[in-house]
Amino acid sequence: MANSRAGEVALKSGSSPKCKWIFTKEEMKNTASLREGLDEFKELQLRQQSTKFIQLLGDRLNQNLRDHRGKITQLCMCAAMIHLHRFFYFHSFTFFDYRDVAAACLFMSGKSEECPRKIDHIVRAWWNEKFPGIKIDQEKYDNAMGLLVAIESLILQTIAFDLKVALPHPLVLKAIDNRKITKVVYFFSTDVLCVTSWGIRYSAEAIAVACIHIVCTWANFEVGHLHHLPSSSSSPSTRTSPLRPEAASRARPPRPVARAQHAPHRSAARAPDAPRRK
Fold first, then answer.
1. Of 61, 120, 129, 205, which residue is least crowded by CB atoms under 10 Å?
2. Total Cβ atoms within 10 A of residue 26
3. What contacts 24+ positions apart, CB below 8 Å, involve 194-199?
């Protein structure tokens, strides 16, 4: 653990907020896990397993939920993935069980993204996913709770208490007028954060544009002129649309945006948390 360089984010503190968490290709070859002997493929595989665990944990917590106000949103899970990617830049997978870090990241993101869940819920869902079929007694419960709280504290120290996360999803909702294409790009943006390390390689704007281009090329859809993508650094939150209505009207270019034939009304693609693909 001593070799994990906790808190080395201070080395990049002199950079702008927009690029503080963007690491170059050369920097990604110097992660804690690679220095501990893991190869790049194995590290990426562990990152993918970590993000998958966050998704499984979120789905379990949302099952049989009586009050939907307590639902963990997809954007909250994506924010937890970003925190996890940042954490494992400075810490090695050889020192931490990715399932423990994933649960702590989701617990922390729930509070920062205003969809918090009790630590009791997190602990029990984490236990059932990590140790299926094994009942948890009081001693194990207390130890598990202490572990997740301690890891959450370490994550906060590692990221220097910077809980701001810019996601491509709100930008996608503002950029495209076609509902079907928007839905596919929205899902694809989540997949990109799950299976790649792009969340700490590129800005939210770059990821959004790349996802739009890939999906539109695949669908043979001519997107025309995109709405102006607002800067993620100026976006106050990842939970809602990146711009307030008055700001959105200023960001829209003066010339009309090309729309697909029979495209549905724009308001149909404004849901801040679109349903996930099953």
1. 120
2. 7
3. 194/48, 194/51, 194/52, 194/55, 194/81, 195/48, 195/51, 196/44, 197/28, 197/44, 197/47, 197/85, 199/81, 199/82, 199/85
